[in-house]
Amino acid sequence: MTTPRKKKVREVKLYLNTLKFVPYKEIESTHTTTTILKEVFTYLRTERNEGNGLLIDRHAKQDKVEPRELYMVSHRIMHKERRIRCSMALLRKGKQPKLKPKSKFKLIPLSSIGGDIVEETHFFIDFSGSTCIICSEYNHNGPRLKDFEYYLRSIAGPSDLKIARATELTVLYNNTVEKTLAQMQNVLSMDIKIKPSNLAKMDVDVKKNYYSAMEDIGKQFKPKFLRLKNYFQIPGSIAPVDINYEANDWFKGNLKVFKSKKRNIKLFEDFEVKYEDIHGDESIFNLSKTREQIVVEVGVQQDFKNKDFYNLVEPALSQFLVDYYA
């Protein structure tokens, strides 16, 4: 019997977003997103030079919620490139993992070593153009983009620098949704997968209009996942397919939801629809591929310092910015 080959690489995804600081009214004429951003990171550098760290609990005002304590691990303003590279850590709470020593079949509690378990996420900020763009690593167990936004807003807000009253974060998407709405002629097949628990998080009107039947099945049978697969043509057939107005309206309605109520996008495991466009060609819409992202391959167990990871991502980030501002 052959031994299965171990996977040598893994994919790391980084998502592209824009960030805007809203300054207090009395300083609107002197403070922009870029100047506020620089002040925030200059403040962090000053604190670091004085031997201080800044730990912020995002859940501090929520008594019954587990703490979500964050701090900046590393940060550097790159003045020539007009960028900032940094990484943030999240203190891990709850049950702690254990360590297996090499060549020994026993477990050692990590708590016996001392210190805290943390998860680190890398963030890269570009302010070279008219928009502040954040390239954020996706780390399921670590700090998320919303954590990063909250941390920066807390420092810029009334507790510390008192220069910004709010932040506005926007996820960047490519034009797949708009293109599909403009060119879709007839739905040929659908493949949609979602967790029943995520249906409960969906906007009420969206769930009622498009997913009430799936919700009923989930409540009755309690599966781990729900999957909807529909074919409106015989596989392999070249015969013309009649226009399916009901499926077309359903699909167009979902596309409009993805444009106006973007929070629902992350609730789907899969959402792929094959359709015939206005030119008679077959096209595929895949929801997971609509968000602007950078994907890099690294070793399965490879870990990076912030500078090294930035150097790996930099070529793709620079190309994205060229296309974005074109």
Strand tally is 14
What characteristic shape results from the CA principal axes? Answer: globular
> What structural class do you assign from the helix and strand content?
alpha+beta
From the alpha-carbon coordinates, what is the Rg to the nearest angstrom?
24 Å
Element-level helix/strand string: EHEEEEEEEHEHEHHHEHEEEH
- Strand percentage: 25-35%
Mean pLDDT: 90
Low-confidence region ranges: none
Percent helix among the residues? 25-40%
User: In this structure, how is the largest beta sheet organized?
Assistant: 8 strands, antiparallel
- Helix segment count? 8
Distance between the termini: 55 Å
Number of domains: 2
Features:
2 domains, 8-stranded antiparallel beta sheet, alpha+beta, 8 helices, 326 residues
Task: Summarize the entry for a quick read.
The chain is α+β, with helices and mostly antiparallel strands. The chain has helices at 33-49, 145-156, 176-183, 196-199, 204-210, 212-221, 245-260, 306-324, and strands at 9-23, 56-57, 69-78, 83-91, 98-99, 108-109, 118-126, 133-137, 164-171, 184-194, 226-231, 268-277, 282-286, 293-299.
Description:
- The chain is an alpha+beta fold and 326 residues long.
- The chain has helices spanning 33-49, 145-156, 176-183, 196-199, 204-210, 212-221, 245-260, 306-324, and strands spanning 9-23, 56-57, 69-78, 83-91, 98-99, 108-109, 118-126, 133-137, 164-171, 184-194, 226-231, 268-277, 282-286, 293-299.
- The strands form 3 sheets. Strands 1, 2, 3, 4, 7, 8, 9 and 14 form an 8-stranded antiparallel beta sheet that branches. Strands 11-10-12-13 form a 4-stranded antiparallel beta sheet.
- Helix 3 (176-183) packs antiparallel against helix 7 (245-260).
